[in-house]
Amino acid sequence: MDTTILVQLVINGILLGGVYALAAIGLSLIFGVSGVLNLAHGEFLMLSGFLVFVLHDTFQWDPFLLVALVAPLFFLVGYAFEKALIRPLAARKEHVRLASAVLVTLGAALIAEDFAAFFSQDVQFEKSVDLFLPTLVIGELYLPSLKLVVFFLVMLLILALFLFLKFTFLGLAVQAVTQNRQGAMLNGINTTRINAIAFGIGTMLAAAAGGFEVIHSYVAPNIGLPLTMKYLCVIVMGGLGSFVGVALGGIIIGLGESIVGFFHPAWGQTVAYLLLVGVLLIRPKGLLGT
Amino acid sequence: MLELEAISVSYGDIPVIFGLSLRVKAGQIVSLIGGNGAGKTTTINTISGMLRPTGGDIRYEGASILDLPPHDRVARGIVQVPEGRMLFPKLTVRENLKLGAFQPALRKGLGRRMEEVWELFPRLRERMGQQAGTLSGGEQQMLAIGRGLMSAPRLLLLDEPSTGLAPVLVAEMFRAIRKINRRGVSILLIEQNAVQALRCAHHGYVLEQGHLFREGLPEALLTDAHIKAAYLGI
Q: Is B109's Cβ below 8 Å from some Cβ in A?
């Protein structure tokens, strides 16, 4: 493989990994705060992608504007999802609660998938938004400008989340609940409400990622669960509780997929798992886990 | 100020507190002593709303608070500094203190109260930007109490504040507790260090395996033969 192609694949991989990182950070935030692994996370991404597609198809609005409108809407979806389906489990014993959370979120994922499949049957299965930006050419390298814009926006959102967690009362409370739930309760923090807010924020990040996917790639009804599994790999690889680690993990898995995909696209998921196993063999707590 | 009226508490099917009655009058330090597993921590967790009693009532300033969730009890001024400190280890000292004033009504006087905490524990000011998890045991205890004070408590529930501290620090901790009390904060103090706890208290309760064993003035408890033998090591 000559170097130009390799460099090209690395660039594509990093750009691909950025969107993984965004959605995975959302999943990690939810898990950190509530202890629930939300198996429906990828479905919110898929549904948001479809919504952006439909709105764009109907009104021809700018897709980036639509992402900015749809993502906050999914804050409410995530918030309501926690309130309606996750909170009622809170009173159960720990092991019952964990098992029920798996069933509830998996059930929601399957329903979301069927729902999307049902409504997209009469048209083609994969949806994407047609948006063309001229490709940047630097020497022999081709930089897909659309993916660059998406990557820039992803980084902006991650930075915004970081600033929120570090400098607002609510953000500090989210961190507090992650680090010591009982301590947070005794500090006058309504941990039940923080759970719902974390679900809202995490789902909003997934929804933004879904909008970006439909802009620079595509969405289909069945992408949800495989994506959730991929994000799970990203989180474990990055180290539980470290958003920087999760961002790194996303980019590493993006890179792996891009390079292997050059030879044959079928092995994308295998690469994610092999990379995960490889990282865990060297660092059992993940890249930046503590 | 606070009245426990014959409360009983269970973990699942296992009863741990049997009809305990206890009162803290405004301005007092009340010490609750007892051995391991006597139910001391269970008692204050019930006062904080982490546990719900199976029987009896908890009244605070005249009204039952049984239906209030923990964060609303904090808003009313019932603040617990838990055993094991329960700090937020990856947040800085300053951020931990800030979170003590999480309730919206508390944020206004935040700066002033932080000054008060620093005056009480000057060490915390030096460690302001440091992660709580990197502090020494004594400093962590100071931070836990400081964080509690940030919630503007009117009734402070202290669970084993002297555990794991060097003797010099234990004395300092009890001085700080008296100082906090003189600022007008009522205190319910739980301690294994029974002598010190009773010496600084206005009233004492002795809990034994979930039952109230004795109550009375500290001087009386300190000279009680059974208590001497069981808790005071005299």
A: no
